[in-house]
């Protein structure tokens, strides 16, 4: 790196004028024929160039924009210096899953949204850099196992090997506890393996992350359904000192309209599980079939809907459609996924909702009857409520429908754990400061608490839970008195600031 | 884990596996099922529990060859081999209480799962009569087991080569007319058989339950592949079942949904048969 000396002397102004480095990607016409990753990854040159755009703010907003508060300026500085594996290790001080988060986090709503460069220029490509360093460390076999704290003699059970559970397990293992994960499916990863497609998150990467956990001494029991084989209480009786429930939002929502049980109508969970976890896209080399026709409609506007419709395209659909009842601005999917979908020729039928499915005499789906919608007043989620335009019914010819309208909590654990409080949607209620449930020693986090959300939020909940579980098992007060004092002081400060601003606002009127 | 302790052919194309699974067997109850996976490329397939040896921790599964997965299990696996994954116990156990006079009905490969249920009903103090049916004498299985678990055993064969010449419904109709009321019926077998039993008992309002076998993927209620209409509502057979009130089940819809992968199943099966070059034996 001959230019190193020069680059180190870049002024702030020079840095701000560096353009954002474009992520190399597979061309749309190629990638709709394969399940390989769409973004190909930055090269070391592009990575350093991108890292040089960071102006190292004295009060970095990006850190608080990150749900787990990764030391972003810290890792970016290491990238600037060409110390890529060290940068990965820096991230791993707070986030155990950088290869995954770099690919699936909605950075444009988190760290990159608050980057100071966002308004006038383009944010630093934090996500692309995170992915780059994690991939570098893995590909160059430079993954190191950090030194574990001395063994505490305590045992923790983690139910579910998804992002929340994996994060809890990693953090507790580093603190010297013996951790056992119980996973219902035959592979660890949760949504990372069954939900997110290969072209967004290669399963080999998830396997590597899981393997890292095993190297930390975490035991993973797959094909173990807690609630059927052992209940939470039975685990506690087997001298686990604490339990974390990270079972996810695994109960598919259906539209509950006529014809939903016709052949060709899938829940997104089934469609994606067949394609991703069971490798249905490689049938008959893999035994599990998937039916994906020529005219596919996916209902919904989130990441799951994008994943489903882009899978349909790759499985040979001539017409792959998104049918969503609100408008483009309300779509919760990651911006990059919507963009990639558009490039791949996905049709977006917005402000449209199905009212029934129609089939032929053999029970196969042939059509969907839809109505047009318009946006009215906001509902409880803050988004404008869609209202039916009466008489606007029309038919769409479809042979496959994938219902991707969200998931509710799988009731198995609440039903088999007496005293475990849930809210009226079946989500486990927890103290947000500790993630502990109504049962002492039983913690929960991720989609089972929040309803369907994101990988990074689940990981964030996992971090909070692990910290509290550690304190619980070691007999310490769950909330550090010093931390609590600080938190209350900051809350007071913020409250007083808001009151002062309000007063000033009133006075100026 | 999940080692095959012994594997024997009960009759052409139907094999009985006894599998080491102590923890699962310890927890399992009659009426529940497991999901098996043979190897890395294999499907997840649901199988009814055909026997629970609680003392030795041995699970009995009976598999009939109907396609690639069952063929590769029956033809390629040997005693001493292991299944890659066995998940369970799944589903709700059969509802067992002192009903009074119970008729257990098993058809074809539905006969083995009737065995633990008949046993459980007998242990609960019921009068248990069992009807088993097969196309022909050579395809009758579990006679000895069910003789032991039932107070009376009736046999029917389509071709009359053994027992009553007719279907299990033929025998059932006779029992329904013998003067003693029937308090509970549990039937497991091919869908047309379970449907026929439902129609036979419907006019007499006899409490009739069936164990449904829709296509499944995860088996824990996460995917909805196994959804069936029961009493006009959508239920998941893997978490709400597999047993349901026979008079409320939409058998037409279930029959239709079972055919969803016929084309792919043929492709897979033919592919396997060509590769093994052993033809049909």
Topology:
The complex is a heterodimer of chains A (509) and B (281).
Chain A: H1 4-8, H2 12-17, H3 28-31, H4 44-51, H5 61-65, H6 72-80, H7 84-92, H8 98-104, H9 111-114, H10 126-139, E1 155-159, H11 163-174, E2 178-182, H12 191-194, H13 203-215, E3 219-221, H14 232-237, E4 242-245, E5 251-252, E6 265-267, H15 268-275, E7 295-299, H16 303-314, E8 319-324, H17 335-343, E9 347-350, E10 352-359, E11 365-378, E12 384-388, E13 394-397, E14 400-403, E15 407-408, H18 412-416, E16 442-444, H19 447-450, H20 455-473, H21 481-507
Parallel strand pairs in A: 1-2, 1-4, 2-3, 4-16, 6-14, 7-8, 7-14, 8-9
Antiparallel strand pairs in A: 5-15, 10-11, 11-12, 11-13
Chain B: E1 4-11, E2 14-20, H1 22-27, E3 33-37, E4 45-48, E5 51-53, E6 58-64, H2 68-76, E7 85-90, E8 101-107, H3 111-123, E9 127-134, H4 143-149, E10 152-157, E11 164-165, H5 168-176, E12 184-188, H6 191-201, E13 208-211, E14 227-230, E15 233-236, E16 243-245, H7 251-258, H8 262-276
Parallel strand pairs in B: 8-9, 8-12, 9-10, 10-11, 12-13
Antiparallel strand pairs in B: 1-2, 2-6, 3-4, 3-7, 5-6, 13-16, 14-15
Account of the protein in words:
- The complex is a heterodimer of chains A (509) and B (281).
- In chain A, helix 4 (44-51) packs across helix 6 (72-80) and helix 6 packs antiparallel against helix 7 (84-92).
- Chain A is built from 21 helices and 16 strands.
- The model of chain A has no long low-confidence stretch (mean pLDDT 93).
- Chain A is an alpha/beta fold.
- A 5-stranded parallel β-sheet of chain A has the order 3-2-1-4-16. In chain A, strands 6-14-7-8-9 form a 5-stranded parallel β-sheet.
- In chain A, strand 10 (352-359) and strand 11 form a beta hairpin.
- Chain B has 281 residues and is of the alpha/beta class.
- In chain B, the strands form 4 sheets. Chain B has a 7-stranded mixed β-sheet, sandwiched between helices.
- In chain B, helix 4 links the parallel strand 9 (127-134) and strand 10 (152-157).
- The mean pLDDT of chain B is 96.
- Chain A binds chain B through residues 184-186, 222-223, 225, 228-230, 250-252, 254, 256, 260-261, 263, 266-267, 269-270, 273-274, 278-279, 283-289, 291, 362-363, 410-412, and chain B through 23-24, 27, 37, 41-44, 68-69, 84-90, 217-218, 220-225, 227, 229, 234, 239, 253, 256-257, 259-261, 264-265, 267-268, 271.
């Amino acid at each position: 790196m001959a230019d190193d000396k020069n680059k180190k002397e870049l002024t702030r102004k020079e840095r701000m004028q560096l353009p954002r480095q474009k992520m190399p990607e597979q061309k749309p016409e190629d990638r709709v024929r394969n399940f390989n990753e769409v973004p190909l990854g930055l090269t070391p040159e592009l990575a350093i160039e991108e890292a040089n755009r960071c102006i190292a703010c004295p009060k970095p907003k990006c850190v608080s924009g990150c749900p787990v508060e990764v030391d972003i300026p810290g890792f970016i500085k290491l990238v600037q210096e060409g110390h890529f594996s060290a940068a990965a290790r820096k991230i791993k001080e707070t986030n155990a899953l950088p290869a995954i988060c770099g690919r699936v986090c909605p950075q444009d709503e988190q760290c990159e949204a608050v980057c100071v460069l966002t308004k006038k220029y383009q944010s630093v490509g934090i996500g692309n850099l995170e992915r780059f360093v994690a991939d570098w460390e893995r590909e160059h076999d430079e993954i190191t196992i950090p030194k574990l704290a001395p063994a505490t003699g305590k045992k923790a059970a983690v139910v579910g090997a998804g992002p929340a559970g994996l994060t809890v397990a990693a953090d507790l293992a580093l603190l010297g506890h013996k951790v056992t994960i119980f996973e219902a499916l035959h592979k660890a990863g949760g949504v990372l393996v069954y939900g997110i497609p290969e072209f967004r998150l290669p399963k080999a990467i998830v396997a590597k992350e899981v393997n890292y956990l095993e190297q930390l001494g975490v035991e993973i029991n797959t094909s173990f359904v807690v609630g059927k084989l052992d209940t939470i209480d039975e685990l506690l009786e087997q001298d686990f000192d604490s339990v974390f429930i990270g079972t996810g939002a695994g109960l598919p929502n259906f539209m509950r309209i006529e014809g939903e049980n016709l052949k060709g109508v899938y829940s997104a969970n089934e469609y994606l599980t067949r394609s991703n976890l069971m490798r249905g896209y490689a049938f008959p080399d893999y035994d599990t079939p998937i039916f994906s026709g020529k005219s596919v409609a996916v209902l919904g506007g989130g990441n799951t809907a994008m994943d489903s419709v882009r899978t349909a395209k790759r499985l040979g659909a001539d017409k792959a459609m998104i049918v969503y009842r609100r408008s483009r601005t309300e779509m919760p999917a990651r911006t990059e996924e919507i963009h990639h979908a558009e490039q791949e020729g996905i049709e977006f039928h917005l402000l449209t909702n199905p009212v029934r499915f129609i089939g032929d005499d053999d029970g196969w789906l042939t059509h969907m009857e839809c109505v047009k919608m318009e946006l009215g007043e906001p509902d409880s989620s803050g988004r404008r409520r869609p209202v039916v335009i009466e008489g606007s019914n029309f038919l769409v010819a479809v042979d496959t429908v994938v219902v991707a309208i969200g998931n509710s909590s799988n009731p198995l654990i609440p039903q088999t754990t007496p005293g475990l409080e849930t809210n009226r949607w079946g989500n486990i209620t927890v103290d947000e400061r500790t993630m502990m449930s109504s049962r002492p020693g039983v913690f929960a986090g991720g989609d089972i608490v929040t309803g369907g959300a994101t990988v990074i939020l689940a990981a964030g909940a996992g971090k909070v839970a692990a910290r509290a579980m550690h304190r619980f098992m070691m007999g310490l007060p769950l909330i550090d008195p010093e931390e609590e004092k600080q938190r209350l002081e900051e809350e007071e400060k913020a409250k007083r600031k808001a009151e002062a601003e309000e007063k000033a606002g009133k006075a100026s009127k | 884990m999940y080692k095959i302790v012994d594997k024997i052919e009960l009759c052409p194309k139907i094999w009985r596996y006894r599998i080491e699974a102590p923890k699962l067997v310890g927890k399992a109850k009659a009426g529940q099922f497991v999901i098996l996976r043979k190897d890395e490329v294999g499907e997840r397939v649901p199988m009814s529990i055909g026997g629970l040896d609680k003392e030795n921790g041995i699970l009995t599964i009976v598999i009939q060859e109907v396609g690639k997965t069952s063929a590769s299990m029956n033809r390629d696996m040997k005693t001493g081999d292991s299944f890659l994954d066995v998940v369970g116990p799944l589903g709700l156990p059969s509802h067992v209480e002192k009903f009074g006079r119970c008729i257990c009905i098993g058809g074809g490969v539905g006969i083995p799962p009737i065995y633990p249920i008949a046993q459980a009903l007998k242990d609960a103090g019921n009068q248990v009569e069992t009807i088993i049916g097969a196309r022909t004498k050579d395809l009758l299985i579990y006679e000895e087991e069910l003789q032991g678990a039932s107070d009376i055993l009736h046999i029917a064969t389509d071709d009359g080569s053994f027992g009553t010449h007719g279907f299990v419904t033929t025998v059932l109709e006779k029992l329904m007319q013998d003067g003693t009321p029937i308090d509970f019926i549990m039937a497991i077998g091919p869908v047309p058989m379970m449907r026929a039993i439902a129609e036979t008992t419907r006019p007499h309002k006899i409490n009739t339950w069936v164990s449904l076998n829709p296509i499944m993927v995860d088996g824990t209620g996460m995917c909805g592949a196994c959804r069936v209409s029961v009493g006009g509502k959508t239920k998941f057979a893997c978490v709400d079942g597999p047993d349901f009130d026979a008079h409320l089940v939409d058998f037409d819809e279930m029959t239709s949904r079972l055919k969803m992968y016929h084309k792919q199943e043929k492709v897979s099966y033919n592919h396997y048969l060509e590769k093994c070059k052993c033809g049909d034996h």
